[in-house]
Amino acid sequence: MQTICIYGRVLARCVFSGYGTDFQRQLTWREQHREFHLVTAASGLSKTSTPVPPRQGPTQPPWKWKFGDDACFIADHTLADVLGVADGVGGWRSYGIDPSVLPTSLMKACERLVKMGHFKPHQPTKLLEGGYREILQDKEQIIGSCTACIVALNRQNRTLYSSNLGDSGFLLVRAGKVVHRSEEQQHTFNTPFQLTIAPSALQGMVHSDSPESADQASFDVQAGDLLLLGSDGLFDNMNDAMILVHLSSVQKDACPDELQQTADKLAQEANLLAFDPDYMSPFAKNATAHGISNLKGGKPDDITILLAQVKETGSSLGETDIFT
User: Of 153, 241, 259, 286, whose CB neighbour count within 10 A is largest?
Assistant: First the structure.
């Protein structure tokens, strides 16, 4: 009888051990097949706007999010979520050119390429190149220059891929700290790298950089991470510490309204600081560092903000599938 009991306990232990191992294996598989996605809010102000930012609801076509000479897009695909910001170079006004046309056309082209699936999530620079090539081939010649920042979250491998040309940029924030920041690209102070389409008379006389010159990077992300894209109107008027004060109030699993309210508050503060003559802005400090000592105050500029949070999408398996 004792032998039978011992044998029974050993058999039960093996059965339950095998079941536990299989159960754990199923859970591991399920965890590995969870995907990430972005929940995003957009806000901004033209430098000629009233101080209260208009609410930009998610029902608007992404490429219609336009603030002054800035433009942006939000596009989702089964492969990735993609965000972009472009800032038109205002100097073209002296030539009678509307600086907002090129960045708006570029963002619209990039958004369309994502929607059509003509992109690779790990190559946002190729997406930027494709959008730029498309507007170069436009029958109605577009003239102007713009900076650009595109970020793509590959849903399956939970990796963020970025391409930043010029002085727009992004922050990746985790647990209240900046874990990654884009690199600003400048030829000289206040002369960023830029994509340019110039008339033949000005060829070689204006800065013109290729999409391949963009700073490229990739980062692993975690659920709850915050991603902030902005034009230089944000970063020239608010330093990272000031931005983090606003982002610190965002819950780890924030609802869209919370993200929208935070983006609106950031846009409003950046706009107010931009017109404060006594404020020593990041732009003014940077000018001093480059030997320009008589520059003080904020920098009046268009402001565009895309604020996103990384969320986890449930597995495609049903709750009972792991038992089958």
Answer: 153
Q: Are 99 and 69 in contact (CB under 8 A)?
A: yes
Q: Which domain holds residue 137?
A: 37-323
Q: How far apart are CA 14 and CA 16, in angstroms?
A: 6
Q: What is the DSSP string of 46-85?
A: -TTS-SSPPPB-TTS-GGG-EETTEEEEEEE-SSEEEEEE
Its pTM stands at: 0.85
Structural domain total, the chain = 2
Per residue in 110-121, pLDDT (tens digit) is 999 999 999 999
Total Cβ atoms within 10 A of residue 213: 14
The span from the CA of 268 to the CA of 52, in Å, is: 6
pLDDT in tens, 72-96: 999 999 999 999 999 999 999 999 9
The C-alpha atoms of residue 262 and residue 244 are separated, in whole angstroms, by 11
Listed residue (55, 67, 57, 12) closest to 274, CA to CA: 67
